[in-house]
């Protein structure tokens, strides 16, 4: 056994364990992982010299790189460089031996093929929901069928989420929905472990340096750096709506003549929309303490009964224009009492003065947000955009040799520090893509694309 040798393991359903295959054509190996793609892929060719290999589609495959051997040539350390499912097999003949060319996808494939049908109430954390997706039989059978674990590497991003209904929805879509609120990211690793994590929290176990000194510093070759300013923005306006959840009270004294009254909300602003109080289907209107049946002008179903039929309602309200109209005028001196909450437009300006000075002028970006009912969410989004987009995109391409990696693994979505004296680079980069191939006997080449930021990581 040699260091950096490639070994393929294929699940043998008859023996109920992995069969070790060392007769692979190493030059055929290609592994590709791109941040944000649905699945990682691998291609490898293996030879069946003794008629012992049986290929079953959709069975597990594992590809390892030997990183350490003892004096007897036995493996003492190895890294899984791919783990997944055989999705395609092409058979051919080389002399008298069978040859199998395999195409594979990683275990993320199962997230798109396992579905849940479940409604859950508000109050669960994102971690609790994910755990239920994988472990609760009422949610699906992924954990039991495919042994993907959601235990060790699932963090908590939101302590409490709103209720939702997932009606025959894939686990991938459920995770995508959750991450759209939490801002987290996820992937299934080659050991069948789900990772759900803050996008800036995962770091590589090594750093890259043109002059490595420390034990975990690794040299590289063929570095290229591209700087792109087309996405540069250093002035941001993020807008949305905020909800004032405190119950508001308005009082109007009827004159006995008019049926239509304006609701005095000038101090709040014209952009206010009135909403029903919590637990109510419509805005509450009382006359002298007696509750009236309310219809809603404009047909907003969310605000309750939209009927304007005088036989069905006593009064109509316009939550946007802020007026009410009775079919019969209330008695003179009657007190009209309204109870409601309201939402209103909110915007946040963020700018990076240093960036504006560096690039000579402001470059503005205006962002509408679906994070309604949260000033905090709007402010955080504005700050995160400023932190990421206020500098040009730097993309780094470089090559690593497996002889230098040792026991380290290269994972897309993790951050790695790069220092290069000649190119004057000394900062963290996101590992955006990894491509692995064999370039010589027991020598793997890792082609990395690093980015200073990535839009989906904002």
Task: Give me the secondary-structure category.
Answer: mainly beta
Describe the largest sheet: 14 strands, mixed
Q: How confident is the prediction overall: mean pLDDT?
A: 83
**Which parts are unreliable, with pLDDT below 50 for 5 consecutive residues or more?**
139-145, 300-305
Q: How many beta-strand segments?
A: 28
Strand content: over 45%
Number of domains: 4
Shape: elongated
Radius of gyration, whole Å = 31 Å
Helix content: 10-25%
Taking the alpha carbons of the first and last residues, their distance comes to: 45 Å
What's this model, at a glance?
By secondary structure, the chain is mainly beta. The protein is built from six helices and 28 strands.
3D structure, described in words:
The longest helix is centred in the C-terminal third of the chain and has 15 residues, at 375-389. Strand 18 and strand 19 (290-291) form a beta hairpin. Mean pLDDT is 83; it is low at 139-145 and 300-305. The strands form five sheets. Strands 1, 2, 3, 4, 5, 6, 7, 12, 13, 14, 25, 26, 27 and 28 form a 14-stranded mixed sheet that branches. The chain folds into four domains: 6-109, Phage tail proteins - horseshoe like beta roll fold (Roll), CATH 2.30.300; 113-198; 207-231 and 392-457, Phage tail proteins - horseshoe like beta roll fold (Roll), CATH 2.30.300; 239-346, no CATH class. Helix content is 11%, strand content 46%. The chain is mainly beta and 458 residues long. The chain has six helices and 28 strands.
């Amino acid at each position: 056994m040699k260091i950096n040798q490639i070994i393929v393991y294929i699940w043998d359903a008859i023996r109920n364990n992995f069969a070790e295959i060392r007769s692979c054509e190493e030059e055929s190996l290609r592994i590709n992982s791109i941040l944000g793609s649905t699945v990682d892929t691998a291609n490898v060719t293996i030879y069946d010299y003794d008629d012992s290999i049986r290929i079953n589609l959709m069975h597990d495959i594992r590809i390892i790189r030997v990183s350490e051997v003892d004096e007897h040539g036995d493996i003492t350390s190895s890294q899984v460089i791919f783990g997944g499912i055989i999705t395609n097999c092409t058979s051919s003949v080389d002399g008298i031996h069978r040859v199998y060319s395999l195409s594979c996808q990683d275990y993320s494939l199962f997230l798109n093929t396992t579905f849940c049908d479940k409604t859950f109430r508000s109050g669960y954390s994102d971690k609790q929901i994910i755990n239920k997706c994988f472990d609760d039989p009422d949610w699906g059978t992924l954990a039991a069928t495919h042994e993907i674990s959601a235990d060790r590497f699932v963090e908590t991003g939101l302590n409490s989420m709103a209720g939702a209904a997932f009606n025959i929805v894939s686990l991938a879509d459920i995770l995508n929905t959750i991450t759209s609120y939490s801002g987290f990211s996820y992937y299934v690793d080659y050991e069948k472990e789900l990772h759900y994590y803050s996008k800036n929290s995962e770091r590589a176990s090594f750093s890259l340096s043109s002059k490595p000194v420390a034990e975990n510093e690794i040299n590289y070759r063929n570095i290229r750096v591209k700087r792109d300013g087309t996405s540069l923005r250093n002035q941001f306006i993020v807008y949305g709506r905020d909800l004032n959840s405190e119950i508001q009270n308005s009082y109007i004294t009827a004159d006995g003549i008019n049926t239509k009254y304006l609701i005095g909300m000038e101090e709040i602003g014209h952009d206010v929309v009135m909403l029903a109080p919590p637990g109510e289907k419509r805005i509450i209107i009382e006359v002298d303490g007696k509750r009236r049946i309310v219809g809603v002008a404009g047909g907003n179903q969310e605000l309750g009964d939209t009927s304007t039929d005088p036989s069905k309602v006593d009064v109509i309200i316009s939550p946007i224009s802020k007026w009410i109209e009775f079919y019969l005028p209330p008695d003179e001196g009657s007190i009209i009492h309204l109870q409601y909450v309201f939402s209103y437009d909110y915007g946040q300006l963020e700018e990076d003065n240093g960036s504006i000075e560096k690039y000579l002028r402001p470059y503005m970006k205006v962002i509408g947000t679906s994070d309604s009912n949260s000033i905090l969410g709007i402010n955080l989004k504005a700050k995160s955009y400023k932190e990421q987009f206020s500098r040009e995109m730097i993309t780094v391409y470089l090559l690593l040799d497996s002889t230098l990696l040792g026991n380290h693994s290269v994972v897309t979505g993790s951050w790695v520090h790069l220092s290069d004296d000649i190119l004057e680079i000394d900062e963290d980069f996101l590992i955006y893509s990894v491509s692995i191939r064999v370039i010589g006997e027991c020598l793997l080449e890792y082609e990395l694309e690093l980015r200073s930021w990535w839009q989906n990581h904002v």
